[in-house]
Automatic annotation (TrEMBL):
ATP binds at K694. CDD domains: TM_EGFR-like. Keywords: ATP-binding, Leucine-rich repeat, Membrane, Nucleotide-binding, Repeat, Signal, Transmembrane, Transmembrane helix. InterPro entries: Kinase-like_dom_sf, Leu-rich_rpt, LRR_dom_sf, LRR_N_plant-typ, Plant_RL_S/T_kinase, Prot_kinase_dom, Protein_kinase_ATP_BS, Ser-Thr/Tyr_kinase_cat_dom. The lineage of its organism: Eukaryota, Viridiplantae, Streptophyta, Embryophyta, Bryophyta. This is Protein kinase domain-containing protein.
């Protein structure tokens, strides 16, 4: 018994010793844990170059600085994640001196320009290099080929020029290679033609080639599928996005050897020759069939469209539009693709009848066969496909339209028949509704959620989270736009959006009420753009920096699984984090040019709320994307003017002339956006010119989007857009003049808006 207290004492003593040792070691750990001086030096160089002293950089442990993430021992910088932090300037060469950097993400900093320093090639520990949506110029440094552990390159949406360096072909770990939307030129490098023996054809592990939206030339190399040694390497490639380039030559048959390919997008290039029959073999890889989308529209392809159904159980989207095919009957094989969803065959030389059973097809949503020579009668089968939503039949030779089953409810299907003999004015059975259906009626989607706090009005870009009950505070969210580059859906539905929203909530580990999708719409070239707001969990503060960083990096690194919109691209429209003085200002007050007259009818269709959202998004975009690619700046010269089909460009001098030098006599209205003038074109047509006041101007891209929207909307209650002026620093919209003085009445909001808008709704628009 006597021993027990002793033992206890010994034990206690031991514990004290252990504790002391622990504290000592903790202390020495603390000393050891200092980030190595080289890394600290690099951080200081970056701080000097980027004005990063507006962050919490400079004092204390560098591992606690914004965007700096150290390794577990705290001795080196492992990740540098500075997305959407307003850093500006160029990337200093010193960045190459980090001792163990693994992830670098500088995306969404529109002020970050200049070239990527070749010293980036010294960061041999780097696994991901992400600098997207910045303003980088100069070449893609070949030194990136030294970074053998790289798995991810995302340098898309910059102004990079020069060609794709072959050295990157040596990176065997790389699975994501995105250089889309830059100014790249030259050919796709292949090992047989390069001095280092590398090329895109040697990238054994790569799953994503995203090189769309550049100015690349030359062929689609046959070596991709048929390399000189006979062993195809690109067997993991799933997305090959090459649309919107200047590629030429024929599509090689050996593409069929890319046995994992899911999306092959070659649209809007200069490809010639036939669609190789081998492409239909794409379906038969070792893992079964993979091809989901084939897009070859907007080329100069000839011959006929081959039968793609051979073992193609996943084929969902086909786009063959606008090629130089021989006259051919409607490809019957389409109806035997079990998952076929979207078919674009505009202007492909189709002749003969449209087989009725295609419209009964169980998964078909959208069929575009406009601008062909299809003839006979359009026959709607007794039972139509349950998913059919869009049938674009314009400009063919259809003489009639027959619905075989009068009980079929066709109201959910958008059928467009204009430009066919069946729509001739003297045709007795003219199906009026189908003939007068406005085209392109893919309406934007907007959130059905309405805030529970209607009495609160938020100023500027602050938003009341509509998903939050009880907490009625306006906060600044992180607002992003997700772009589905190749959507598998052709119509945006509530359930699709909700599925996406819940995936974002779950995968970002957020609360249900933190993610709100405000609007979604298709762009003119078929992409889908989805606007998402991320709110703070408490509902009363702005979204914090850590969450902003987490969300944006998850998106830039494509680490979210969003099958509906893969592969997606994300843009920051406004960042809600309050770390920087600049973003605290709660953003600009300059109202954008409203669409008072033009959008009146569109508004009635999509709702005031959607419009408000859009306006807000556009205003924010203007602020966060000052480097819009359209035009050099403020439209100083007519040379900057874009080509927009359906809207004519008016030089400033012409507008000045037709409005009598903007004389007071021609003034027919004034609003928050500026003034409206009447004028007479040289052809005698009367127009109304809406001239944006200086402080109401939008960014170039926003202005362009607006014109595109207006020029696409056609409605009987809508004042048509004739054209626009973006010249001499002016932004003006030219509309048809409404007779009988209605136009000025609209402007003053006195009477007779052409739709059933309430006076407060009208005011909201007039103020915009
Ligand atoms: C590359 O990655 C491997 C495996 O993760 C690792 O062992 C190696 O040290 C890395 N190389 C460099 C230079 O970091
Ligand atoms: C990118 O290319 C376009 C057209 O090819 C050109 O107008 C523009 O000036 C280029 N931008 C830069 C930054 O090189
Ligand atoms: C790609 O180019 C097309 C046409 O040139 C353009 O409409 C589209 O906005 C571009 N896409 C991106 C992601 O910039
Ligand atoms: C690859 O494609 C070419 C052309 O279609 C073909 O001749 C060759 O046999 C294919 N190679 C393999 C390994 O499938
Ligand atoms: C298309 O190919 C499939 C599979 O080889 C075949 O069953 C079908 O009859 C073909 N269709 C046409 C219209 O040639
Ligand atoms: C439809 O067009 C085809 C080919 O041009 C022609 O042979 C046929 O007679 C036409 N059918 C009708 C009903 O006009
Ligand atoms: C389709 O037809 C319309 C009307 O004839 C024409 O204005 C349009 O340019 C055509 N589109 C194509 C791609 O040929
Ligand atoms: C006609 O349509 C109705 C409603 O969709 C359906 O119930 C009926 O079976 C159809 N009739 C025939 C003959 O297919
Ligand atoms: C047809 O369907 C729409 C909704 O899709 C519905 O509003 C309408 O009442 C239906 N019409 C008939 C006659 O059933
Ligand atoms: C609501 O926002 C205002 C201004 O942004 C702020 O002053 C107020 O404290 C916030 N309310 C709560 C409960 O946080
Ligand atoms: C950011 O994401 C990581 C990993 O997904 C998670 O551990 C961390 O808690 C997140 N941070 C915040 C602030 O949400």
């Amino acid at each position: 018994m006597a021993g027990a207290p002793v033992k206890q004492r010994v034990f206690r003593g031991g514990r004290v010793l252990v504790l002391a040792l622990f504290y000592l070691s903790a202390l020495s750990n603390h000393v050891d844990a200092a980030v190595n001086p080289t890394d600290v030096g690099v951080l200081n160089s970056l701080s000097a170059a980027w004005g990063a002293n507006t962050m919490n950089w400079g004092t204390g442990d560098p591992c606690t600085w914004t965007g700096v993430f150290c390794d577990p021992t705290g001795t080196k910088v492992m990740n540098l994640l500075l997305q959407a932090t307003n850093i500006a300037g160029t990337i200093p060469a010193a960045i190459g001196s980090f001792t163990g950097l693994e992830q670098l993400d500088l995306s969404y900093n529109p002020g970050l320009g200049g070239p990527i320093p070749p010293q980036i090639g010294q960061l041999t520990t780097l696994t991901s290099l992400i600098i997207q949506n910045c303003a980088l110029t100069g070449p893609v440094p070949p030194e990136i080929g030294n970074l053998k552990n790289l798995t991810f390159i995302g340098l898309n949406n910059n102004y990079l020029s020069g060609s794709i360096p072959s050295s990157i072909g040596s990176l065997q770990q790389l699975y994501w290679f995105d250089l889309s939307t830059n100014n790249l030129t030259g050919e796709l490098p292949v090992s047989t033609k390069t001095t280092d023996g590398y090329g895109l054809d040697t990238m054994t592990g790569c799953k994503h080639f995203h090189f769309n939206n550049n100015s690349l030339t030359g062929p689609l190399p046959s070596e991709f599928g048929a390399p000189p040694d006979g062993i195809p390497k690109l067997t993991k490639l799933i997305h090959m996005l090459l649309e919107n380039n200047q590629l030429s030559g024929s599509i090689p048959d050996s593409i069929a050897n890319l046995t994992s390919l899911e999306i092959l997008s070659l649209s809007n290039n200069k490809f010639t020759g036939i669609i190789p029959p081998g492409l239909s073999r794409l379906a038969t890889g070792p893992l079964g069939s993979t091809l989901e989308q084939i897009l070859v529209g907007g080329n100069q392809l000839t011959g006929t469209i081959p039968n793609f159904t051979a073992l193609n159980p996943k084929l969902a989207v086909v786009e063959f539009s606008k090629n130089l095919f021989d006259p051919q009957p409607f490809p019957e094989w389409l109806k035997s693709a079990p998952t076929l969803q979207t078919v674009y065959m505009e202007y492909v030389g189709l002749i003969g009848p449209l087989p009725a059973d295609v419209l009964a097809y169980p998964s078909l949503e959208t069929l575009w066969v406009r601008n062909n020579s299809l003839n006979g009668t359009v026959i709607i089968p007794p039972v139509i496909g349950p998913k059919l939503l869009t049938l674009s039949l314009q400009n063919n030779e259809f003489v009639g339209f027959t619905q075989t089953n009068t009980s079929t409810n066709m109201s959910q299907i958008d059928i467009e028949l204009a430009g066919n003999p069946a729509c001739d004015a003297n045709n007795v059975g003219r199906p009026t509704q189908l003939c007068d259906q406005p085209s392109g009626s893919k309406l934007p989607w907007s959130s059905p959620f309405v805030s529970n706090c209607p009495s609160v009005t938020c100023s500027d870009s602050l938003v009341l989270n509509p998903l939050k009950t009880g907490n009625c505070n306006c906060t600044l969210p992180l607002e992003m736009q997700l772009e589905a580059r190749r959507p598998t859906f052709s119509v945006i539905t509530d359930s699709l959006i909700e599925t996406l929203r819940l995936k974002l909530v779950a995968q970002l580990n957020l609360q249900n009420s933190q993610v709100w999708i405000s609007t979604a719409a298709f762009s003119a070239d078929g992409r889908a753009e989805i606007n998402v707001d991320f709110f703070s969990a408490d509902g009363v503060s702005d979204l914090d920096r850590a969450s902003t960083s987490n969300i944006t990096h998850s998106l830039t690194s494509n680490s979210l699984v969003l099958d509906e919109i893969k592969p997606y691209l994300a843009r920051v429209i406004v960042s809600g984090e309050t770390f920087f003085a600049t973003s605290k200002k709660r953003l600009g007050t300059g109202a954008i040019v409203g669409i008072v007259l033009g959008v009146l009818a569109a508004l009635a269709a999509v709702g005031i709320y959607a419009f408000w959202q859009r306006r807000r998004a556009e205003r924010l975009k203007h602020i966060s994307k000052p480097f819009a690619k359209w035009g050099k700046g403020e439209g100083e010269s007519a040379l900057d003017a874009p080509q927009i089909s359906g809207a004519r460009f008016f030089p400033y001098s012409e507008v000045k002339r037709i409005t009598n030098n903007f004389s007071e006599n021609n003034e027919i209205g004034v609003g928050g956006y500026g003034k409206v003038y009447s004028g007479v074109l040289d052809n005698g047509n009367k127009v109304a010119v809406k001239r944006a006041a200086k402080d109401s101007m939008q960014g170039a891209e926003e202005f362009k989007n607006e014109i595109e929207l207006l020029s696409r909307v056609h409605h009987k209650n809508l004042v048509g857009l004739v054209g626009y002026c973006y010249d001499q620093g002016e932004q003006m919209l030219v509309y048809e003049f409404m007779p009988n003085g209605t136009m000025s009445e609209w402007l003053r909001g006195k009477c007779c808006a052409p739709t059933s808008l309430s006076s407060s709704q009208f005011k909201q628009m007039a103020d915009s």
